[in-house]
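Dear colleague,

Thank you for sharing your sequence with our group. We've completed the structure prediction you requested, and as agreed, I am returning the results in plain text so they can be pasted directly into your records. Please verify that the sequence below matches your submission; if there's any discrepancy, let me know and we will rerun it promptly.
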Amino acid sequence: MRFLDFVRQQGYSPYHGTVSAAVYAYFRCDHPARARWFHRPGSYQCAGCAQQCETDSPDGFQIFLLTDHRDA
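Please find the predicted structure tokens below.
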């Protein structure tokens, strides 16, 4: 099974936010341009190379505010 298939099977969705350079420095990533981040509640997983870096810390990941657009 390909790793991307496994990640999706585990409930991860593609992460489209900005990732800080500090995250790549922490993981000592040689090629941040290749990063492909995925997210599920409580976990961020990169599938950009064989290292398959994972963290449960949201530090360095863009936070999205969810708004409710229902008419009042």
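Summary note from our side: The chain has a mean pLDDT of 90.

Kind regards,
the structure core
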